[in-house]
Amino acid sequence: MSRKSKDSLGEQAAKAAGRALKSAAKSAVKKEIRKAVGKTSKRSGRKIPVLVFFLFLLLLFAAALGITFIPEDKVPAPLENTYVALVSRRNYLVRQSRLPVSCYDDVHSLMNPGSDPIQIYFAPSPKISSALCAFLRSAVRSIDVCAFDIGLEAVADTLIEAKKNNIKVRVVTDTDYLKRNALGRISKAGIPIVSDRKNSLMHNKFIVVDSRYVWTGSYNLTDNGTWKNDNNAIVFESPAVAAGYQARFDQYWSERFSNDGRRTELPQQVFIGKMPVYYAFSPTDKIRNVLLDELDQARSTVDVMAFSFTGAELAAKLRDLCKRGVKVRCLFDRGQAKNKASRDEYLHKIGAKVYISPNRRGKMHHKVFIIDGKTVVTGSYNFSKNAESKNDENILILRSEPIAKLYTAEMNRCIKGIKGY
User: What is the torsion angle, in degrees rounded to the nearest 10, for the CA atoms of residue 131, residue 136, residue 139 and residue 142?
Assistant: First the structure.
């Protein structure tokens, strides 16, 4: 037999073997599929096709996801715990993705007669930093940033761009954070920076744009402030309020910090549009006394969100309110509650309903009072001795039921831990 014939026979044999193997493989796969589809449930004794089982799981997942989009106030009481667990898990997955997607009501715009709409932002959220940059880009003449910690590169980029567009930009910050890369870039761009002394904190988080618009709250301009910590920021148009914040900024710009400053000549009442507001700065304005006066007016409820609460006088005032029948709720940061000086255990003993934040990835960083569902106190001021007597801080007091409703909803979210921690 020739070599060619042998090769031809070999090829034919190989092809035949290949076809047989392919046929056997197909038969084996079909057999396994039939076996899988015919699996039985030991408990029910009924045949449950695997594909149907997976379809059931898919529908169950879709139903669970759908439940998370039911408005919280529409959830039946028996399903509340299930709802909270599902929403918490959904928001956690969204947060881990770091996509620019809101997983709770973190952005609000409230119409306000006589002014531009009031904007309120809650964190952790991907929206708050982009909103801040948009606020800075709205400047026409000037930007004055008074911020404890500036770590967001996007903020640095926006301020540098504003400087290039001939907008007057100034920055006041705390000495401890001068080595931040973002601040280094801001300085190299020719933007002037003033920092405080080291024996106290320049703890404010406010910005004044064009001497007309104000951004303030508890939000530090950092990645943690954006992605991990519970925070709030409020933005509004009010030349009257902006004038007060501008005057305090100019004082810092003259390197008069802490008790070197002058007491604010607080008017009886200023306005954001037609909404009455008050503001104050520590340590010169004795914010603690302002807060005690506000709490004295409480008749039904007081809600407290506090990163740090060590003030004896404020704790005593809440005790008195509990005795008067006022319902007091307090939410504290988990880490700060371990501080021996924290008043959480004392407040629990005297009748306040005390919650410890479930946020384990970050801090419960709010500094808020909500009084009778119609007054909100917010700002940078922690309820502590240092905030009262040493640090540079600010508070804003707003008389508004719609704003109080938003902050109450935020407190409820923080208590339940459904923000994606």
Answer: 150
